[in-house]
Design a protein that fits this description.
There is one protein chain. Helix content is 22%, strand content 36%. It contains eight helices and 20 strands. A hairpin with a 2-residue loop joins strand 11 and strand 12. The protein has two domains: 223 residues, P-loop containing nucleotide triphosphate hydrolases (Rossmann fold), CATH 3.40.50; 123 residues, Beta Barrel (OB fold (Dihydrolipoamide Acetyltransferase, E2P)). The structure holds adenosine-5'-triphosphate. The site of adenosine-5'-triphosphate has 12 residues, from strand 2 and helix 1. Part of the ABC transporter complex PotABCD involved in spermidine/putrescine import. Responsible for energy coupling to the transport system. InterPro entries: AAA+_ATPase (IPR003593), ABC_SmlMolc_Importer (IPR050093), ABC_transporter-like_ATP-bd (IPR003439), ABC_transporter-like_CS (IPR017871), Mo/tungstate-bd_C_term_dom (IPR008995), P-loop_NTPase (IPR027417), PotA-like (IPR005893), Transp-assoc_OB_typ2 (IPR013611). Its EC number is 7.6.2.11.
């Protein structure tokens, strides 16, 4: 643990008999951009509100570095929050909105600090405007500047981009990341948008029904999900039922008469009933009967049942002999093969791109 790591230990929050957050453990390293990702109602806002001091944990503790903050009043915590509703003061100028926290503390060099902060969020020329004279994205940046001006140790962001349209959202994601890197303050960002979490955060905790299902770097979560929930929540995946057994340095997976391979040591499970997982963009198609490339896995005799052209890629559905439809994304480069509905195809992928999950979990 370093200077100001945020450590949530064994935290449970009950509302009556309903358990919103269930024995949660989470360490957010100082200076990290951390995302809490999950569907509506999974407990992410409640977790954030407990860190802010707006809810009290039923059990467990929350600390920032050496300081236990579980029962501290919100205003005594070195923590600020940015909400989706910007909550700016409509009668004050942008400058005064951002200056508010400093003035309340009787700080001296307000002009300089606010000036620097407005530059950071690229609103220098709007200092004298009122909030209603700014766009949604600009107002969100004012809210951010106002929350950062006191240099909290942790900034909590609760779906801060939720009110913006998609294009502006994408721009603001990159902006937020730049600002976080510049200020070096720990950001904990709550979102239900997996692309947003993966674009911005160094680390993501995936929440479901009050618990963290998995946490790690975005690439790790995407390529090595440990549960079907994580596999499905972070993008599209094909989950195919198989039987796994150890085979030297590999795991052998038998699927409908085909023997497939995955490397050992990374999978959530390596023997018995499994879901064999493969992301659609990792699969490549060939005409049925084409020989496999060295070492690749192959599932044969699919029939294309759907072709969707979506610009950068073409999405195929291939119905396999056992009735399951598998998804394949093919990049639209010059070399694309362009299969049609009814074509017979084989599906290939490299063993390294396979992930294995315990078949006792629901696949959907
Ligand atoms: P969303 O993205 O929809 O905000 P969330 O993951 O942030 O979802 P929470 O707001 O943390 O979810 O809520 C988790 C669960 O706790 C929900 O089922 C919610 O209805 C319940 N809950 C939250 N606050 C209260 C409360 N004050 N009293 C009773 N139940 C609550």
């Amino acid at each position: 643990m370093s200077g100001s790591d945020l450590v949530i230990q064994g935290v449970t929050k009950r509302f009556g008999s309903f358990v919103a957050v269930d024995d949660l453990d989470l360490t957010v390293p100082e200076g990290a951009f951390y995302a809490l990702l999950g569907p509506s109602g999974c407990g992410k806002t409640t977790t954030l509100r407990m860190v802010a001091g707006l809810e009290t944990p039923t059990e467990g503790s929350i600390s920032l570095g050496e300081q236990v903050i579980t029962d501290l009043k919100p205003y005594k915590r070195p923590v600020n929050t940015v909400f989706q509703s910007y909550a700016l003061f409509p009668h004050l100028t942008i400058f005064e909105n951002v200056a508010f926290g400093l003035r309340r503390q009787g700080k001296k060099d307000v002009k300089q600090q606010v000036g620097e902060m407005l530059e950071l969020v690229e609103l220098g020329q709007y200092a004298e405007r009122k909030p209603t004279q700014l766009s949604g994205g600009q107002q969100q940046r004012v809210a951010l500047a106002r929350a950062l001006i006191n240099r909290p140790k942790v900034l909590l962001l609760d779906e801060p981009l939720g009110a913006l349209d998609l294009k502006l959202r994408r721009q603001m994601q990159i902006e937020l990341k730049r600002i976080q890197t510049e200020v070096g303050i720990t950001f904990v960002h709550v979102t239900h948008d997996q692309e947003e979490a993966m674009t911005m955060a160094d680390n993501v905790a995936v929440m479901n029904a009050g618990v963290i299902e998995q946490q790690g770097e975005p690439v790790e979560l995407y390529e090595h999900p440990q549960t079907t929930f994580v596999a499905n929540f972070l993008g599209q995946s094909n989950l195919i039922r198989g039987e796994a057994s150890a085979d030297g340095s590999h795991v052998r997976i038998d699927v409908e008469g085909a023997a497939l391979r995955a490397p050992r040591g990374r999978a959530a499970t390596e023997s018995g009933g499994v879901w064999l997982g493969i992301r659609p963009e990792k699969v490549f198609l060939s005409e049925a009967g084409t020989e496999s490339q060295d070492g690749s896995n192959a599932l044969r005799d699919g029939v294309i049942t759907d072709v969707s052209f979506i610009g950068v890629s073409t999405q195929y559905l291939a119905k396999m002999p056992w009735g399951q439809e598998l998804m394949v994304f093919e990049q639209n480069t010059g070399a694309r093969k362009g299969f049609r509905v009814g074509d017979k195809v084989d599906l290939h992928w490299m063993p390294d791109h396979t992930f294995l999950l315990d078949a006792q979990q629901d696949a959907s």
